[in-house]
Amino acid sequence: MSLRPEIHFSSVFDHCSLNNNFQCFQGNPLNRLNLHRKSLQDIVQHSQSRFLPYRQLKVLFNQEKKQPVWLTHQFLFDNNNTEHKLTVDQCELVLLGISSQSLVDRSPVATSEPTKIDSETVSKFFLASEPGPDEYIYFAVSIPPSFADKLPGTYMDLRPLLPQLSVIDAAVCGQGRALLDWHQSNQYCGKCGSPTISLEGGTRRKCTKCNHTFYPRTDPVAITLVIHSDKEHVLLGRKPSFPPSMYTCLAGFIEPGESIPEACSREVWEESGVVVNTNQTHYFDSQPWPFLGGQLMIGCYAYATDETITLHDSELEDCRWFSRSEIADMIQRSRNINLDQNDRNLRIPPPIAIAHQLIYNWYSKI
To answer: If you count DSSP H runs as helices and E runs as strands, how many of each does the chain have, helices first?
Structure first.
């Protein structure tokens, strides 16, 4: 996702509210260097490496500056003033990528594209460990509980923190959380049960006994806005766990052997009884979602051929057709960043969710 430099540090909530073709967690500027992660020792210790601490998947945040806390190797691992010295071996460390220093110093980003490094530069970089003078090497690091409280800042859950984050901070913090979550869930081999170790900057894990290799996974989710044949109503549902009066698009995991339209059709029918035409299912956009193990939300529109609602199970407590005028009011309420979560007026998810963008795009353009 290419971004204009001036919006990199704008509020992700505001930017999503104003741009329905942009999804929260898009816009990551880092070059992930996936092909060049064989040895990390030199760059971990490099003076231009920066580390974003997490504790139990909560990110370290400076509430006064309203930005994540990036620390140097010297501060994190070589600080002799700490009561208990932290070592790299005590942490789960993930290389996020390389990019401009602007993530830390908040200066304008010179380019809207990720940093591009040719093979010659990469070779020099890993041999001489010398990134450009205006670049940092970014890591996410999981801090052990015994040391976590010694660092400056407050550990905060990423999801409720999103309204305070910038576009880029949301994307990078999401990347770090998703990868650390995967590592935390794969400490042992799924084939033989032996411990696994992290390799190549956290891009894979390997079993210490059977040598089976594991790679970070992303689970695809089909999220569908079903449009009535009159084109003036859309189908939304709510689960019992939702905040009061919140309705959203129907969604579910794509199963093995399914195409995206087939998954949309199956999930809509299973949850609501409504039948959609797979030949009239259209892709809208996708959103990386760094929660629940790491998901990719694939937003689609589908047109109903049988609009009768029949709830087949208890997954949804309600499902109904909403008119365009009702949707207008629900959009307005969902864009109130100070909305009381116990408010009983109907609303949809906030702009940082792709469901909101699906609904708003239908309301404004279709």
So the answer is: 11, 17
Task: Report the alpha-carbon distance of residue 178 to residue 288 in Å, rounded.
Answer: 9
Both 117 and 266 in a single domain? no
Distance (Å, rounded) from C-alpha 18 to C-alpha 321? 26
Question: CA 289: distance to chain centroid?
Answer: 4
Quick one: tokens of 329? 């009011």
pTM recorded for the entire structure: 0.88
Identify whether residues 337 and 275 lie together within a single domain.
Answer: yes
pLDDT tens digits, residue range 259-316? 999 999 999 999 999 999 999 999 999 999 999 889 999 999 999 999 999 998 889 9
C-alpha span between 275 and 226 (Å, rounded): 9
107 and 163 in a single domain? The answer is yes
- The set of residues, in sequence order, having a beta carbon less than 8 Å from that of 149 and lying 6+ positions away, is none
Closest CA relative to residue 36, chosen from 205, 199, 200? 200
141: in domain: yes
The answer to whether position 113 is within a domain reads yes
Which helix (H) or strand (E) segment holds residue 158: the answer is: helix 158-161
Token pair for 301: 């529109």
